[in-house]
Amino acid sequence: MREIGTVGIVGTGTMGTGIATNLAQHGIAVRLFDARPEQARAAVAQAQAFYAKAVERGRLTAQAAETAATRLAVVGSLAELAPCDLVIEAIFEDFTLKAQLFEELSRLLPGDTLIATNTSCLRVSALAQHVAKPERFLGLHYFSPAQINPIVEVVKGEATSPETMAAALAFCRATGKKPITCKDSYGFAINRFFCPYTNEACRLLDEGLATTAEVDVVASEAVGAAAGPFRVQNLIKPRINLHAIRNLAPLGPFYAPAKTLIEVGEADRSFEIGEVGEIPAERRALICDRLRMGVFVAVLQELDEEVATPADIDLGAREALRFSKPPCALMDELGKAEVARIIRPALTRYGLPEPASLARVGRLSR
To answer: Which listed residue, of 23, 69, 73, 243, carries a Cα 20 to 30 Å from 44's Cα?
Structure first.
């Protein structure tokens, strides 16, 4: 199995910078490339600032921080990534741009260099068609902030070899991450249900059934969310969430973006979240059901498709999204009859068949 000691990062925005910061802290030499050299230099400065804060908080020694910073190097061309064992793409979520990059990397990198995409929503197998020797290509979807979020979805494309998967899983564990093995499917394991969850929150606004503040409060009851869906969307930007949801369009109308999300996302605004008073019990129950419905329908569908195991889905929900009530365990706790009641309106409204995995509720997380 190939050991990974040097990694190239292409794209030094939020995700590329976070990935590089994590890797250098865990002993990996990192070469950073960005079409804007000043952006790559800024990424190194951000990593250094992260390490300095970690020293202040007692999480790193001064020596460890200094050593981590020395592992980060900015390069001026893609050709300078040739010595890397693995190159991770972290550029804008545009299929054409990524495809062009992979074609160029295929010409410049040795044939045994592993290549990964950090895409959150594009199909790995489709991107692999632009990679020479696609057996060395896979998805490594880090969650933000990648410096500290422990979850990485390791996505096997149709051509990805078992050796590539094994090397990637070992690499993730060696760099302090908890990898989730995923089938190549729209949204992978986590966004597959996180996007419908946030979208259902927006549909409640569309239908005049709740305010943003009310939804965020009830989310803690519905899924044990540390932060409600509107607060989280404001952190990641509604524009970015809208883009992610639109990429789930092939999955059908249940995944179509809500009117309010389209308006706020296309205007590149944030959601206004005001104060909340007493929420009537009936409204609270309705909000809770709708948020759970968004999660449960998507999770049951992905279980039917064998995208990921119940254990990995729940691990991602707890660690990446900070849901203290992860979906499979929550469905088991509620029981089949209650889950069937919650998802029935969505099945009827969107003409969906009953998920086969509904029959397993009560023993999903065993």
So the answer is: 243
Nearest in space to 333 (alpha carbons), one of 353, 361, 294, 310: 361
pTM: 0.95
> Nearest 5°: phi and psi at 259?
-60, -45
Tokens read off for 349: 């409204």
Helices (H), the chain: 14-25, 37-56, 62-70, 95-108, 124-128, 162-174, 191-206, 212-222, 229-236, 238-246, 259-266, 281-304, 310-319, 327-334, 336-350
Q: What is 6-183's CATH number? A: 3.40.50.720
**What is the residue-averaged pLDDT of the chain?**
97
Angle at 238 between CA 35 and CA 127, to 5 degrees: 45
Residue 129's nearest CA partner among 159, 108, 163, 109 is 159
**Could you tell me if 5 and 49 are in contact, meaning their C-beta atoms sit under 8 angstroms apart?**
no
Give pLDDT, residue 365. 83
pLDDT at 121: 84
Q: Where are the domains of the chain?
A: 6-183, 191-360
CB 174 within 8 A of CB 146: no
Q: CA–CA separation, 170 vs 201, rounded Å?
A: 37
The band of 138, judged by pLDDT with boundaries at 50, 70 and 90, is: very high
For the stretch 344-365, pLDDT in tens is 999 999 999 999 999 999 999 8
**Which helix (H) or strand (E) is 156 found in, with range?**
strand 151-156
Percent of the chain with pLDDT strictly greater than 70: 100
pLDDT tens for each residue of 88-101: 999 999 999 999 99
d(CA 343, CA 31) in angstroms, rounded, equals 47
CATH topology of domain 191-360: N-(1-d-carboxylethyl)-l-norvaline Dehydrogenase; domain 2 (1.10.1040)
Cα dihedral 254, 257, 261, 262, rounded to 10, equals: -160
The mean pLDDT value for 161-188 works out to 97
* Strands 151-156 and 137-142, sheet pairing: antiparallel
| Separation CA 169–CA 154 (nearest Å) | 7
pLDDT of residue 1: 61
